[in-house]
Amino acid sequence: MTARLGLYGHHTIPCKSSVCKVNNRNRPAGCASANGGEPGNADPHCACTAYPYNPLGGHCGNGDLTVFPLSANATDGEHPLFPVSFNVIGSCAPQGLLQSLPEGAAGVAGLSRLPLSLPSQVASKLKVAKQFALCLPSGGNTGVAVFGGGPFVLQSAHPENLAQVQPSLPLVKNPKNPGAYYFRVRGIAFNQ
What we know:
Belongs to the peptidase A1 family. GO terms for molecular function: aspartic-type endopeptidase activity. It comes from Eragrostis curvula. Residues 10-149 form the Xylanase inhibitor N-terminal domain. InterPro entries: Aspartic_peptidase_A1, Peptidase_aspartic_dom_sf, TAXi_N. This protein has a single domain (7-165), classed as Cathepsin D, subunit A, domain 1. The protein has 192 residues and is α+β, with helices and mostly antiparallel strands. 10% of the residues lie in helices and 21% in strands. Strand 3 and strand 4 (59-60) form a beta hairpin. Strands 1, 2, 5 and 6 form a 4-stranded antiparallel sheet that branches. Strands 3-4 form a two-stranded antiparallel sheet.
């Protein structure tokens, strides 16, 4: 697939591509459609429009769907091993979408079940399981995201494989929103 060179040296995705169709299949509700960058546009110079969404502020914008390099560390689940780099599909967001994000945040990564989510792209590019684990610590400490089938070992006083010590939370699919994660709730307790 060929594409024109976009801002910052990123290659944009053509409107007529199948990737553009996949991208626009699940546009967030309430996001106004941009003129010209829709799937199926026959203009050979048409760049596919993406609709980045800020879930904290509930706002969306639009920008070119682009291909850009991503770098991370491969891991055995416990230790970083070596750097890996690969291309992913994403979009730059208008500056206004970043305003309600935590200080220092550069953007938002989609973690859904959909084909262009970060876990789906990592699994496809690196041939790992389509699974991920997040550690979101309190107190301003740095968190971590681990993609692949595990093990998921956090470095602490007593390192343990989280996949073995944490209870599993079975996820349920919702045909009305196939990209989202749902789980059954039997009850909610407070102050216990």
